Amino acid sequence: MRIDVVTIFPEFFDVLDISLLGKARQTGLLEVTAHNLREFTHDRHRTVDDTPYGGGAGMVMKPEPWGEALDAILGPDATSAGEEGEIVSSAEAPVVIFPSPAGTVFTQAMARELAQREHLVFGCGRYEGIDQRVFDHTATRAEVRLVSIGDYVLNGGEVAVMAMVEAIGRLIPGVVGNPESLVEESHEDGLLEYPSYTKPAAWRGLEVPPILLSGNHKAIADWRRTQQIERTTRVRPDLLPPDLLPNE
Ligand code: 6GU
Predict the structure, then answer these.
(1) Which of 7, 8, 9, 100 best tests ligand 1's pocket when mutated (most atoms within 8 Å of CB)?
(2) Is-contact 193 228, C-beta < 8 A?
(3) What is the reported pLDDT for 130?
(4) CA distance 129 to 153
(5) What is the pTM of this model?
(6) Is residue 19 classed as helix, strand or coil in its secondary structure?
(7) Contact (Cβ atoms closer than 8 angstroms) between residue 111 and residue 42
């Protein structure tokens, strides 16, 4: 998979060189490039923002540097992936994701879907946002999505992109060594994960639930399932599938 990130803080993404994803980058499973938006300006101050039309607080990111950066990444021809004016949406077309608190919420299902794509482009906004025409124009040559990582406000999209790249990257086949470890974790089956224990069997007066020492695999699986349902009901009832909702 190829991932391009456009940002005014490309150094932010240096940490992708370490850890699991760093290894995936070395082996070529994942190719991540961070592009400095200011490289696509032409004035002495490398200006990327300006005051909003209609007034209001804060600054808005200017469209021209974004247009040039996305030209460099997607190809200069605005119609390269479709007829002029057509909104492009196909499996091969790049997906351009703009992190935004005004976007649809990023989920494990979205991570799974995006992990299937060949080319993801992330555009990190700062200030009060990006000129709307950047989204509208990009939609003529790629699939565009505004995506939020939760109901709170960050100063810019960089931290959100880091979270999304990690969630998506680890789902690319071969990135996580043992694919089975991807199956039994929170959100993969719609429930939160069960509690885990390791040795010693007793620690500071706290004992591992005896069933986990029983060797009875069926009983252990049942216990874990019950723990998942109990935990999800307690902390995230919004996630419960309809068949597990408590009866009236
Ligand atoms: Cl994706 N961006 C920003 N700036 N703030 C956010 C967010 C994204 N998701 C939640 N808050």
Answers:
(1) 100
(2) yes
(3) 97
(4) 12
(5) 0.90
(6) helix
(7) no
